Amino acid sequence: QVQLVESGGGLVQPGGSLRLSCAASGFTFSFYTMGWFRQAPGKEREFVSHIYWNGDNTGYADSVKGRFTVSRDNAKNTVYLQMNSLKPEDTAVYLCSAKPTLAPTWDYWGQGTQVTVSS
Q1: What single DSSP character describes residue 102?
Q2: Which residue among 14, 23, 48, 107 has its CA within the 20 to 30 Å range from the CA of 1?
Q3: b vs e for 47-83, b when ≥16 Cβ sit within 10 Å of the residue's Cβ?
Q4: What is the per-residue pLDDT across 84-103, written as a single tens digit (0 to 9) for each?
Q5: pLDDT value at position 50?
Q6: Which residue positions in the chain have pLDDT lower than 50?
Q7: Degrees (nearest 5) of the Cα angle 3, 4, 5?
Q8: Distance (Å, rounded) from C-alpha 50 to C-alpha 35?
Q9: How many CB atoms are located within 10 Å of the residue 12 CB?
């Protein structure tokens, strides 16, 4: 049974930092590209970041580039998203996802973790 479980969300002031984690099970984690997406109330889900199976290739949305860093630990079946210099517009539910690297669609999704940036 595939599971993606996000953690690390919470309430943080503007300019603060959070580190999200996503623990994966039920599939061969080291073979999959992992992604982070987010969805704010009333808005569509949007891509945040991805990291290839070996960690050598990463990508970011322009809105988070230079502030967020994605990483993974294949020995722990976990992917991370370090979020710095957070802004109120980063407020959203953050979801973890997984897909085979060359696949066009994301196969697996977590339930998400809430990130709220507010003073």
Answers
A1: T
A2: 48
A3: bbbbbebeeeeeebeeebeeebbbebebeebbbbbeb
A4: 999 999 999 999 999 998 88
A5: 97
A6: none
A7: 115
A8: 4
A9: 18
